[in-house]
Amino acid sequence: MGLSKQLVSEQSSFESHGSGGSSGWQAPEQLIAKDGGAVRQSRAVDVFSLGCIMYYCLTGGKHPFGEHYERDTNILKGCCNMSGLAGQPEAFNLISAMLSTSPSARPSMSAVLGHPFWWSDEQRLQFLVDVSDRVENEDREPDPTLLNALESYTAAAVGCNWGAGLDAELIANLGKYRRYDYSCLRDLLRVVRNKRNHFREMPDSLQQLLGPVPDGYYRYFSSRFPMLLLGVFFFALQHLDEDPNLAKYWAVGQHHFVPFTKAWEHSTATAGPRGSRPGRGTSARRSSGSSVSRMAIYMTPAPLPPAAPATPSRSLSGGGAVHGAVASPQPPAVRTAATAGAAAAAQPTVISFAKVV
């Protein structure tokens, strides 16, 4: 990173008056120290510089703070252009937190390495299945809090009508076995889980459309719902953080992921129709007296067709009552090549960082 300083295990920060580091790649506190300011530097400077490098690698040579002559100024002002990561929501969430102006708002390196950005498709699919298993019977519980919390993430994760994002052949196949509510996030997780578990029982044409498992299968859904993984992840992180079957997904500790949760909350708070602020967020538990680096992340996803009106659940032939499921009287709009491109991609444009006290 251009700054070589070995810290002992008990040391978390240091003070330096040197000008180590490459111009345009240094954290704001390094630039302040370079100009003679009294500021302590910590391991967070490396997190910031790594964020710049990751952005550069993922965008084919672009820089989040602009051209050479303006980078230091933009870093100090917190003016960051993240448009190069449009269509890469996991990278967007990870790097936007790493580039926070305030060192205390950046994630630790252990949290960076634990972010879903690094997960394989197999691990991402298994996570969605595990969460689906956990919430499957929540509608039978007397307390609806957890299920309501999950559904509060629906708009941000998949929009108002996930059925419009699926191919007509899959929709027709789904209707043969049970009824699904296209506005319900839990029901989409059911689809992901059930079709994964019964993949070999599907017609060959559907296997070719969705497969192979796990990579092709996961990408079928992630290409149509780019925010699905993050939406479910932050729901689980906030509401299922003590579940022993899910703890492996944040092994370093739930509190290490607070910077990513804040980034998610800010992005959904400033989003368009798809945005929906989670029901129980980290910000509600954060001390109001602390100084943090706030992000305004502007995302403009393509709107989905309106969901079909739902009818109450009823028993299906050959099975018991479908608890909590509702039926759409007619299938959603048929997915075409044109609607596929429009419905799939959230399109982040520019974010800016502003320090809030």
Task: Write the SSE topology.
Layout: E1 13-14, H1 28-34, E2 41-42, H2 44-58, H3 71-77, E3 79-80, H4 89-98, H5 109-114, H6 121-135, H7 145-151, H8 154-158, H9 168-174, H10 185-197, H11 204-210, H12 215-224, H13 228-239, H14 258-269, E4 292-299, H15 337-344, E5 348-356
Describe what you observe in this structure:
The chain is mostly helical and 357 residues long. The protein contains 15 helices and five strands. The protein has a three-stranded antiparallel β-sheet. A two-stranded antiparallel ribbon has the order 1-2. Helix 2 packs antiparallel against helix 4, helix 4 crosses helix 14 and helix 6 crosses helix 12. The two termini are 29 Å apart. The relative contact order is 0.14. The C terminus is likely disordered.
For the biggest sheet, the summary is: 3 strands, antiparallel
Q: What is the helix fraction of residues, given as a range?
A: 25-40%
Order of strands across the biggest sheet?
3-5-4
Computed structural class? mainly alpha
Strand content: 5-15%
- What is the first-to-last residue Cα distance? 29 Å
Let me know the number of strands: 5
What count of helical segments does DSSP give?
Answer: 15
- Mind telling me the C-alpha Rg? 22 Å
Globally, the shape reads elongated
User: Which residues sit in consecutive blocks of at least 5 with pLDDT less than 50?
Assistant: 275-331, 336-357
Mean pLDDT over all positions: 79
Order of helices and strands: EHEHHEHHHHHHHHHHHEHE
